[in-house]
Structure formats: C-alpha cells, structure tokens
Amino acid sequence: MTEFSLELTEDQLQIQKWVHDFAETVVRPAAHEWDEREETPWPIIEEAAKIGLYSLDFVSQCFLDPTGLLMPLIAEEMAWGDAGINLAIFGTTLAVAGIFANGTEEQIGEFLPQCFGTPDDIKLAAFGVSEPDAGSDVSSLRSRARYDEATDEWVLNGTKTWITNGGIANLHVLVLSVDPELGARGQASFVVPEGTPGIRQGQKFKKMGIRASHTAEVILEDCRVPGRCLLGGKERLDERMARAKEGRRSSSQAAMATFEASRPTVGAQAVGIARAAYEYSLDYAKERTQFKRPIIENQAVAFKLADMKTRIDAARLLVHRAAWMGRVGKHFDNGEGSMSKLFAGETAVWVTEQAIQILGGYGYIRDYPVERWHRDAKIYTIFEGTSEIQRLIISRAISGRHIQ
Ligand SMILES: Cc1cc2nc3c(=O)[nH]c(=O)nc-3n(C[C@H](O)[C@H](O)[C@H](O)COP(=O)(O)OP(=O)(O)OC[C@H]3O[C@@H](n4cnc5c(N)ncnc54)[C@H](O)[C@@H]3O)c2cc1C
Question: Is the pTM above the cut of 0.70?
Fold first, then answer.
C-alpha cells in the first residue's frame, strides 16, 4: 500500500530553494521600481532566462512533474518575490497551457519553442480570450475566425482586451468564434506566430496592481494565419461543431480547457503574495513597540496573525490538491480547481488587508511593500474567472443544477 505523505521530494525541495533564492535576491529587490514604472521588467526576464528559469526546458519539467506540485511551488515562490514580475516572466505559460491543452503533438513541437526563444533572443507569449463584451461570459465572443479554403488560411478579426503580454508577445494564442450560433462550442484556439500582419496592440492599461505585468488590447484586422495554426486541427473542430449541431455532448471547449489546467497555479501565486504579507507583518509585530510592549503581545494582533497563517496553509493545501488531481487525471467532480483559486484569491486579499492593519500608518504608505501586496492581491479575485464565477462552477458541480 502507498503511504500517504505531504512531504515534498528532494528534487522539489531543491528546485523550490533555487527559485526562492532568485525571488529573494533578484525579484523582490526590483519589485518597487517596476511597480512604479509600470513597464515590463526586461532586465529581470533576461536574468531569469540566463539561469534557465525562463525556458521551455524548465517549464516542461514543471508541467511534467508526476505529482503536479512543481508548478504551484514555483508560482508561490515567484509571487512571494513579486506577483507583477512573476506574471511578466511566466505570463507566457498561459499560452503554453493553451497549446498543450488543445494542440496536436506536431503543433506542440512547432509552437512551444517560439514562446520562449533563447536567453540571447527572448520571446514572450500571450493567451487571449476576453473581449470588451465577453469577460465572464466567454460563450459570447464576437471576434471571428473565417476559413479561406482557397488559400488554406484562417482570417481573424476582432478585439481582445486585458490581455497579459498582449501586443508585446511574439506569439499569441487567441480564442475566436468560428460559428457564433454554437456559443462556446463553436470556438477554437488559434496561434498567431511572430511577424504575422494584421495583429497589433491597442490600448495599454494602467492598473491598480501587478503593474510590472503588461496588460493591453489586441486588435485583429484581417489577420491571416496558415491552416496549421488552428490548434487541434480542422478535422477535429469540424467534428466537434457537427456534434454540437446535433445537440450531442462534446468534450470541454477551448478556453475552459486552458483555464481548468491553470487555476491551481494562479491560486499558488495568490498564496505567495499572502505569505509575503504574513511574514512581513509577523516580523513587524514582534519589533514594533506601543504601550511599552511589542504589539504582537496583544491578542488582537496575535490572533490576526494566527488566522492569517491558518488561511494561507488551508489555501496552499487546496492548491496542491487541485494541482495533483489535475496532473494524475482525477476529474474535478466538485470544482476543486475553482475551489483552490477562489479560496487562495480571497485569502490573499484578506491577509494583505490584515497586514496593512498590523503595520498601521506604515502599512498605508508606499515606502513599505504591504500596500503593494494588497493592490497585487486584488486581481486574484478577478482574472482567470472572478470569485463569483468560481462559486458558480463549484455550486453547479456539487448540485448538478444549472445555478444562475
Ligand atoms: C490585469 C488583468 C489581466 C488579465 N489577463 C488576461 C489574459 O491574459 N487573457 C484573457 O483572456 N483575459 C485576461 N483578463 C481578463 C479577465 O479574465 C476578466 O477581466 C475576467 O474574466 C472578468 O471579466 P470582466 O472583466 O468582463 O467582468 P464581467 O464578466 O463583466 O463581470 C463583472 C462582475 O459581474 C459578475 N458576474 C458576471 N456574470 C456573473 C454571473 N453569471 N453570476 C454572478 N456574477 C457574475 C462578475 O463576477 C464581476 O463581479 C485580465 C484582466 C485583468 C484585469
């Protein structure tokens, strides 16, 4: 019988330490500067590429870890360093997940190396579903992909919004509607490789948090990509749409397959931010003296820290469970992927707010990192499915009812 254990393997511990060292010595010291500059931190991405952290090899190693835990372990350490810089470095992996989830072996072999490039010629990738009128409701995408049989090309038109690395990415994976009447089941993922005419960046957004990560609109104007850029291939798409037209069930659609796989990793980033704020406020509470004693000696402060630590550990356990289930092929019968992202995201918002309270006035000013962590944490209840959408997924899964 296999023994139950929550212990990490030697390999996992070593890699976790390696990434932690990078987060501590390179990422965290740069966090304030890039938050203020609101720009992609190219020098830090270069550093990550130089040591092999930003590379196809390393990301493949994480994806292929048999326990599924390596990806969330790395994400937690990196977001502990800085969530915005982490996303600037690893935003590419969302496109990688999109290619893995929907692509053929051949497409995986062709497109994944193009997502990373080499340390001397770094490439970034982006994954775009959201549109101005289709955020939570991804079934109502307006952007269209039309097949041109004469040239075996797909012609892409429309506007994607809030896309991480949008427009600055070398390769974009975009979900578009082929047959709008079929809703989500009439959609497919397309790769737009570097140098394709007809794709450009629209507005770049100024944000509340994760400001080192670039977020922008992506505009498609008669953007033509070869037939082989349809992930999964035309035959599979035609079969899927035929099944949908006959009202038969089909496997999950393009965007959802990607989000399901990436939710625990997103949850792990939220855990990383929460842990950073908890550790900082714990140290602060031991140092800061008021009424002639360290503030931690007040239950009001110490109990806050006890609750912060408990919720962080609970969030991490949910994240690791979902990551393990996803890797070993256990179905999320109760929305376990959503649970991990929901709880971790809300924990990060709550914990970082408590941390501000523990620091008092110092928590509110930009000289200290705590207010930044709170701003960074908030996105985790919004992107990759809002908290409400996660609750919808969980409640539908546990009830079998179509909760509205
Ligand atoms: C910084 C940032 C980076 C992002 N990166 C990407 C990216 O790389 N790729 C990408 O495709 N997208 C990205 N997004 C988009 C993100 O996924 C969407 O913002 C998110 O899905 C919510 O969509 P929305 O903003 O249109 O909100 P809406 O869907 O309009 O929701 C507004 C509010 O209504 C609630 N609501 C909506 N429908 C329901 C319902 N049925 N039941 C209950 N409540 C509901 C929501 O929970 C929310 O509170 C990013 C967004 C941001 C801000």
Answer: yes
